[in-house]
Amino acid sequence: MKKTFRLVISCPDRIGIVAAVSQFLNERKGSITEASHHTDQESKWFFMRHEIDAESLSVDVATFREQFAPIAEEFDMKWYVKDSEVLPKVMLLATKESHCLNDIMHRWHTGELNCEIVGVIANHESLRSMVEWYNIPYHYISVPKEDKMPAFHQIEKCIDDAQADTIVLARYMQIFPEFLCQKYQHKVINIHHSFLPSFIGAKPYHQAAVRGVKLIGATCHYVTADLDAGPIIEQDVIRVRHSHTATDMVRLGKDIEKLVLSRGLRYHLEDRVIVHGNKTIVFAD
Amino acid sequence: MKKTFRLVISCPDRIGIVAAVSQFLNERKGSITEASHHTDQESKWFFMRHEIDAESLSVDVATFREQFAPIAEEFDMKWYVKDSEVLPKVMLLATKESHCLNDIMHRWHTGELNCEIVGVIANHESLRSMVEWYNIPYHYISVPKEDKMPAFHQIEKCIDDAQADTIVLARYMQIFPEFLCQKYQHKVINIHHSFLPSFIGAKPYHQAAVRGVKLIGATCHYVTADLDAGPIIEQDVIRVRHSHTATDMVRLGKDIEKLVLSRGLRYHLEDRVIVHGNKTIVFAD
Amino acid sequence: MKKTFRLVISCPDRIGIVAAVSQFLNERKGSITEASHHTDQESKWFFMRHEIDAESLSVDVATFREQFAPIAEEFDMKWYVKDSEVLPKVMLLATKESHCLNDIMHRWHTGELNCEIVGVIANHESLRSMVEWYNIPYHYISVPKEDKMPAFHQIEKCIDDAQADTIVLARYMQIFPEFLCQKYQHKVINIHHSFLPSFIGAKPYHQAAVRGVKLIGATCHYVTADLDAGPIIEQDVIRVRHSHTATDMVRLGKDIEKLVLSRGLRYHLEDRVIVHGNKTIVFAD
Amino acid sequence: MKKTFRLVISCPDRIGIVAAVSQFLNERKGSITEASHHTDQESKWFFMRHEIDAESLSVDVATFREQFAPIAEEFDMKWYVKDSEVLPKVMLLATKESHCLNDIMHRWHTGELNCEIVGVIANHESLRSMVEWYNIPYHYISVPKEDKMPAFHQIEKCIDDAQADTIVLARYMQIFPEFLCQKYQHKVINIHHSFLPSFIGAKPYHQAAVRGVKLIGATCHYVTADLDAGPIIEQDVIRVRHSHTATDMVRLGKDIEKLVLSRGLRYHLEDRVIVHGNKTIVFAD
């Protein structure tokens, strides 16, 4: 894959933004390999993502950052530019279920996910051997029912020591505490095993079986202090029939959970997701 | 299409039901063209639907009914047998939106739906010409905000006069009153423009846009006194993106509403749906 | 819907195109409501579509055209700019099957398709009444097996008299002759009832049933002299099972044919489709 | 999971089959947990699959087999009955790509696939460590271009030594020779990375990119001597856009390949697939 710079911008919509940015890139001989725009008509907010061939540019990422700053200021931009070769550092959290974890690790192992997996934190020992086969550090941190806070402080330290910038709850069966949600805002990605906002909370497949729905789904979203209510990144569904029990749904749902989480994570890692209020703009490829 | 008898059964599960029924059919030389079974393991309830080539049988439907009664009694069956050539009578209810109505009428017109459409009841005049092109009687019954009951009694009379046995709310923008829900239990089919149980009630696409979901859906269900909470017959979804406003969702959603309603209605008309508690068994072909 | 100008460009890829175009729009105060880019890495070709709020612009479409010409020349662009309120004129061709025709006419009737339907040409009389209900002129042009050319010349005249710029073969069961394919290049849209390139030619559902596929599909494509081999605009599929005969597939397939044709037609009418070699770039919304 | 007997039957259609079979089961107190029927109207052939609670039966599988034989003979049945606890023995074949292999092994490891994986045969060494982590024997059998037959005889011996009854080509990049196709008829399952019959043979994603299709797919089928033309078990598709190169399709396609192969394999292992001519009846749950 070619080295690119990813320039991601959001700002109040007004005339001249695209002209200013493309003029800037043009002056530095930037060859744009992917460009995406969106204007939210309701909030009058503008979003843009450019992927620029790094070799075509006459400047490095630090210089780019410095020189772009005045334009960003002029248009009141929230923005960043990233070098695609500086890999995001991902910390995975899991409990006992391995389908999402295995899926992510396998994609990473075969070069499909551009990131560094810096570790797995789990509140059980059962997945250690699988994780260690991938040469990924395994941190066993038990979360006792009666007093969970010390464990979460240990988790925080573990994340920070590893300098992780993306945290993935890969079917981690613990509610992430508010202080971590806030500290890592828009950096914690969860997979919920229902088509949100249906079936929030525990045992969604059981809820789905009781309601008699004809499709079940999964939702990849950023974690906020509000349970299963954060900005949605990706969703998908699969058909079920009257013959499927809650147990069957658990099995069928795994395929959707894996897919939806991996897809959402890839969008996040490639800087394709912009959070706006409680919604996301996803510039999928 | 060949004339068939449709034998639909539900009863407590126990050994011997299939043997008894198939023995009965065998003795009458019945050639089974479609057979479906389901056992609900939780409630230990058994469901069966047979479609039998009418010409192969040595008995007519009345004799069949009479002779089958003892078996039905032995196994505590809720059951019926229907002649596929006795067409169900369908009353359609609509407001101003024509996409579902047109879809159903066109399918019926081209022989895709095996039923008789006995009329359209609408609380506006705008769809009259379209309906009358199909030679279907159009009943304009206004439903004034301040006092809706007289209108619903008129609707009841209209349904009964036409001897309708299936009532379809084809985007009828009025809440069906409890007394009609009860009178026509499991005979009133509604299309709700969301993937239930998400976004119950008014303006579901607006709710979906606010929540930022990545798929929108539609749900075909039997109407009960509990709003949008009746047994689900069929559902489907369509992908949306950040660029889609609530208005776009309304447009995109229409395609799913039409499909889901027509599919659900077809299952109902072909006696493929059995209601069990608040769920359905759907023996789709 | 707001009046927009749609600027659609394709040209050899090189640095500076976006800067030049956005500078041009910026100088005329153009507010971009939708912008899409694509670079084909293999052919090094660049594609761009802008939708610009017409009221924001300080120029009308003719002046825009005149003033943009030098830029277009500089970059060797194939390009056009269109006023969204100048509606495309669509001629529909059909035989006896009405599902696609009815679907398109109903969408147009309810304001979903931004076009003028200037007529329906059919080689049977059976759809006349339905078409005339929509106040659309119906042209019966028989296509006798032994000598089809006079009919196609009559069709050509009919299209030209109506000044149609888009021709839709809505399940028109005649092969379009080469001279018309060439005359109306990239203006004739067909719906083929299979997932191309599977099952080219006659009776695709029958072919699908024989092969035992588990999904059937439909393909909307531009017609070329090479049968069912033109640039694909849109495709979709639906699941089938062993219980579905070719006849069932015909019925199930209709739903996909309608959807795929209407979606493809909408993309075409909104200038979202650019043909490049034998492929299309579709800037879907 | 409860122990069941699976009775799978195909025979010429005639009246009395269901009665005879259900009478037989009834006499032995068999509690039917799943029953599926199908009649192929064209060939007048009948197919039936029963899953019977083993504990409810008064006979073991050997006695069942013996006692059922006269009925089978009377109706000219091709049939078998299997104990669900006698696990099928699966041999996997792979080259270098690990996505399908890892997916199957992980499902098996977590108890989702009811089988015994007796080994992996590969023509490269690269997957050894992953396979051995699962404690599955790894057989490296090189297939030299100039003379492949000795390798295939070695493969045959390896399959037979392990007493494998199901052979899965999990992206095995070698054409299976005719003598093995014949020897293991309806026992060799392949995943082809296209929506067959489109794009038979090599590099289907490249072919798909050239043709400009809007969906790509995968096909799980039984291997026959006729390349990619055997009976199809399962298929699925995923949407692609003009921005996706052949390389992107390879990546996106993997998700569909895995899913389709695992689904097809599960149907096969649960005796849900009956081959009839070049088609399959799949009694999916």
Reported CATH architecture of the largest domain in chain A: 3-Layer(aba) Sandwich
Largest protein interface, residues of each chain? A-B, 32 and 32 residues
Q: What coarse outline of chain A follows from CA principal-axis ratios?
A: globular
Compute the CA-based radius of gyration of chain A.
Answer: 20 Å
CATH topology of the largest domain in chain A: Rossmann fold
Strand segment count of chain A: 13
Poorly predicted ranges of chain A: none
Largest sheet of chain A: 7 strands, mixed
Q: What's the arrangement of strands in the largest beta sheet of chain A?
A: 7-6-5-8-9-10-11
Terminal CA distance of chain A reads 15 Å
CATH superfamily of the largest domain in chain A: Formyl transferase, N-terminal domain
**Domain unit count of chain A:** 2
Order of helices and strands of chain A: EHEEHEEHEHEHEHEHEEHEE
